Amino acid sequence: MATTTYPRIAIIGRGPGGLTLALTLHRRGVPFTVYERETSADSRAHLGGMLDLGYESGQRALRENGLGEVFARNSRPEADSFRAYDPEGNLLFAKDPDPNQDPLDVRPEIDRSVLRKILVDAIPANAVKWSHALASVRDLGNGSRELTFANGNTAVVDILVGADGATTRASDTKKPELQDVVSMLGNGSMFSFGHEMMLGSQLNGNGRIRTYAWFPGPEDGKLPNEPAEARKVLLEIFKNRAPSLRKLIEYCNDGAIYQRSLYRLPLDHKWEHVPGVMILGDAAHLMSPAAGAGVNLAMLDALELGIVLADTINGARTVEEREAAVATWEKERIEAANHFAVIANTNVQAWTSTEDPASILQSMFKRMGDSAVRRKA
């Protein structure tokens, strides 16, 4: 009997994209190794907000890997709600889940940490190498590459997949002084637009409010390291927000203030296929979160790449045939991602503009209102 010779596959990063690829390969009998810089599955478990998964993207990646029911048990359809306010706290728009809505158009929310645990638990524990931050890659000239990690370890691989991608505040909904803003938030997400900045919050499944403060500034701009001083700076920046909304900053957890710059790759960017090397998710099409599409695109990238690799490897196709199939996948996925990159870029410019908040919402819903787009984002 002929036996399958499996290539040595390295997946860099255990985010949703990397883990979805690992799961897709595992379910189809293809071995792999995930290399992750964090020290354990519990590292930074408190970071990350809610993720809403589209039916034909993130949810599809889970369904086709046997995790549809697990997702249904751990997700929160009731959190697919949305509130929008102007700077003074006046409600501009509200949307709650509709019991008569087509189930395909519902985007259940799931905490990032919960999704990550579901994926990690579904692959072999020994398939993940923790404390392995990739330091360098050396082409060995025979179709393989040597990886060197910051801890001094090395590995030789035939297929290298980059899935390691590219400011959050947390408060507790039980605090009595926050009840007015909690009532504004509802069960899901809310945003306040205007004055060239946006204040947005999500209600996580653990009862925490995670808030994102978006505002334009110099790339090298830094908040003070001292939480109390950082809070003062943010309160000054958002001084024109309604008192209820400012509480999201006033009562934020001192240990949960993180500054993040927003980056994106150029729109409609492309590259020549490199045999044996693939990238997916933010590594391939980094965009701001303003289209709500990043995790869904990453998981769909990973599912479809995993299927391509498994089919060509298990089908004993030649390396040349495998690379041709991967190149086709690359082209299709970058074209699909660019559609959402344009939406994200337009939205973030609007959210940090002087445009009237009501006009911002109207334009945003026009760009993202199509149900077919919503399912895939």
From TrEMBL:
Keywords: FAD, Flavoprotein, Monooxygenase, Oxidoreductase
Residues annotated as domain FAD-binding: 276-319
Name under which the protein is recorded: FAD/NAD(P)-binding domain-containing protein
UniProt feature coiled coil, ranges: none
UniProt xrefs under Gene3D superfamilies: FAD/NAD(P)-binding domain
InterPro entries: FAD-bd, FAD/NAD-bd_sf
Source organism superkingdom: Eukaryota
GO MF terms held by the record: FAD binding; monooxygenase activity
SUPFAM superfamilies: FAD/NAD(P)-binding domain
Organism of derivation: Dichomitus squalens
Pfam families noted in UniProt: FAD_binding_3 (PF01494)
Keyword Repeat: no
